[in-house]
Amino acid sequence: MYVHLPKQIVILNDRQVVKTAQQELVRGLSRMLGKSLTVSTSWTKGSAFVLGTFLEIHSRAPNLNFPGGLKTDGYWLKTARIHGSECLLIASNTDRGILYGVFALLSKIAREENIAGIGEIQQPFASIRWVNQWDNLDGSIERGYGGASVFFADGKVRGDLSRARQYARLLASVGINGCTINNVNAAPGVLENSFIAQVRRIADVFRPWGVRLSLAVDLSSPKIVGGLDTFDPLDPRVAEWWRMKVHEIYGQIPDFGGFVVKADSEGRLGPSTYGRTPADAANVIARALKPHGGIVFYRAFVYNHHLDWHNLKNDRAKAAYDNFHPLDGLFDDNVVIQIKNGPIDFQVREPVSPLFAGLHHTNEAIELQITQEYTGQQRQLCFLVPMWKEVLDFNMRSEGKDTPVKSLVAGDVFHRPTGGFVGVANVGMDANWLGSPMAMANLYGFGQLAWNPNLSTEEIVDEWTRLTFGNDPRVSKAVSRLQLESWRVYESYTGPLGVGTLTNILGNHYDPAPESSEENGWGQWHRADHEGIGMDRTVATGTGFIGQYPPEVQTLYESVDKCPDKLLLFFHHVPYTHVLHSGKTVVQHIYDSHYDGAEAARDFVSQWKTVEAHIDSARYQDILSRLEYQAQEAIVWRDTICQWIYHLSGIADDKGRIERVTKQNTLEQ
Ligand code: GCW
Q1: Is 429 exposed, middle or buried (0-12, 13-18, 19+ CB in 10 A)?
Q2: Neighbour count for residue 665 (Cβ, 10 Å)
Q3: Does ligand 1 lie within 6 Å of residue 518's CB atom?
Q4: Is ligand 1 within 6 A of the CB of residue 204?
Q5: Three-state SS annotation for 238-291
Q6: What is the Å distance from ligand 1's center to 143 Cα?
Q7: DSSP 3-state assignment of 298?
């Protein structure tokens, strides 16, 4: 199919990222098609791949009709006759866009797509497409399940940064243009002069891939690192300290991206120490970054983890909106409020954060979690793109208009200068980056959605599957099906009906331990007792959280009758005998859901076995043993949660399954 492809590449400049693009094209075509291409910087006659900016190509081919008004980093793949020969143009307004265009072309070839006569324009939905890594300087990664840090070891930047370089390549291949390399629970030491010189080496390996580096910083750094007696954001000495520090960083890293700030959260110091607001804190840093083009990502994950659990009106879900909505309009234009998708914390199912509709004069970015902290930690299969799609497509009806979350975060609705997507990736040194080969679909999917949230889940999973396992339809169908079912299945045997993930929140966030959520100040409450289950977050009788949404969304959630079953227990406390829209009682739904989920997890094993003859045995065995393990874990989950509910409610399972398990356990004791 690709016999007529050009045999030479013409690059119209020799800037670093374009050189990377050229090298990728040479490498990709040689490995996939066995073609060897010549490279030239001057455009003579003959058929060629032509890599350049619109301006550069225009100056050589003025008669071509160029697409206008493309967003930054958008690209054009175009077959055109130039100087009498057929050429394939890979053009963009930026060098990074040219690189993305090359990756897109290679992806098409890998998936055996017909590219004859191609004429395709792609452009990113938003300018911010970043990942965060929660890497500690000792080389460990908070909530990382794919091995040690690719950046740090023993308190220093690694000597060998080849994996960091490959990571930048991986990120660029899915359109990601920024990476925060250290944990948001930031070690102040990253801002020591000696450390910045080390970080510079990481920025140097990112640069050829168009990935900007940023750092998570501790707000008390002016005191701890700078030796001042304060870190009050309104103190001029503090402002000057940030200004000088930023100046120093840009001296080493001229394309530095900016800072991520976690403050007044989970024990981190913050502006509240001095009675100041997040806006005061964000702005002092933003002003230091502004002349250099840097951004501050200020996280909205600010909440009190010592909430009084006796008080039924207390609600952690309200914290982000309560803290940030009143400050709307007070943040500088190079501040972005980074908001987790849900109001609690990356649970298997949450409604969207109402804060997305609560900021009209402030930039925002959505924070999604690629690393599967509460969703099986890469030991269990949980493909998160379907969840993210639901979140991004959710229509907030802000001011009574169509305002899906994706458009709010991109800044389109309220005409903000910037905005977008941040994914907590936490890849590590493991050969497959995330610990499990199947989990990489989440990183791929995050990149694809950040570029174009209008892609369908099916398209994304099909592309990933074929790029990863090849084009055999028997394999791609089976893998896609597993991925597509996995979130629903994981939810059904862990925490259905919006109750939360029910993991051990005081420990590993993995094993089932529903009681760990209650009777402590963390606020991940489900309020299950002998009468009923769920958090009453209504305006009428509950915490009032629902009142933070725009009116039409309030109407949807406030009434127990309208509230969708999948989120019922997030918003309402109901008796176990409450009848769902499905016609089942809550308690029976819980039992059935856990049994069906465990059954479906077992079925994953049989589905996987169908591909045995069609993929390499190493990956086949690896994934097989993971799925077998998951099937066991699903039974542990099923029995733990069902027995817990049975003991609380005293209501028997219609199908008599729980009583049998309980009896059997009693006999065994
Ligand atoms: O859910 C919590 C995680 C913490 C994390 C925190 C956050 C980096 O359990 O490990 O800290 O979220 O997002 O800041």
Answers
A1: middle
A2: 11
A3: no
A4: no
A5: HHHHHHHHHHHHHHHCCCCCEEEECCCCCCCCCHHHHCCCHHHHHHHHHHHHHH
A6: 8
A7: strand
Mean pLDDT within 283-310:
97
Nearest Cα to 192, choosing from 161, 234, 156? 156
Q: Is the CB of 301 under 6 A from ligand 1?
A: yes
* 455 CA → ligand 1 middle, Å: 29
Residues 6+ apart with CB under 8 A from 654: 588, 591
pLDDT in tens, 384-408: 999 999 999 999 999 999 999 999 9
Rounded distance between C-alpha atoms, residue 415 and residue 157, angstroms = 39
Q: For a pocket test of ligand 1, which of 131, 140, 143, 366 has the largest count of ligand atoms closer than 8 A to its C-beta?
A: 143
Q: Residue 338 in 3-state DSSP? A: strand
For position 83, what pLDDT does the model report?
83
Q: Ligand 1 pocket: which of 131, 132, 134, 372 to mutate (most atoms <8 Å of CB)?
A: 134
Residue whose CA is at the smallest distance from ligand 1 atom 13 = 301
- The reported pLDDT for the residue numbered 366 is 98
Atom of ligand 1 nearest to the CA of 346: 1
Q: How far is the CA of 142 from the centre of ligand 1 (A)?
A: 8
Atom of ligand 1 nearest to the CA of 185: 8
**For the residues of 576-592, what is the DSSP string, one character each?**
TTPBPTTSSBHHHHHHH
User: Does residue 669 surpass a pLDDT of 80?
Assistant: no
CA-based radius of gyration for the chain: 26
- Give dist(CA 592, CA 576) in Å, integer: 14
Identify the DSSP state of 515: G
Separation between Cα atoms, residue 164 and residue 466, nearest integer Å = 25
Distance CA 87, CA 239 (A): 54
665: pLDDT strictly greater than 90: no
Q: Give the pLDDT confidence score for residue 264 in this predicted structure.
A: 97
Q: At what angle do helices 162-173 and 95-110 cross, to 10 degrees?
A: 80
Largest CA distance in the chain: 86
**446 pLDDT band (50/70/90 cuts)?**
very high
Question: What distance in angstroms lies between residue 301's CA and the mean position of ligand 1's atoms?
Answer: 9
Give 150's contacts (C-beta < 8 A, 6+ positions apart): 135, 158, 161, 163, 164, 167, 427, 428, 429
Which ligand 1 atom lies nearest to the CA of residue 265? 14
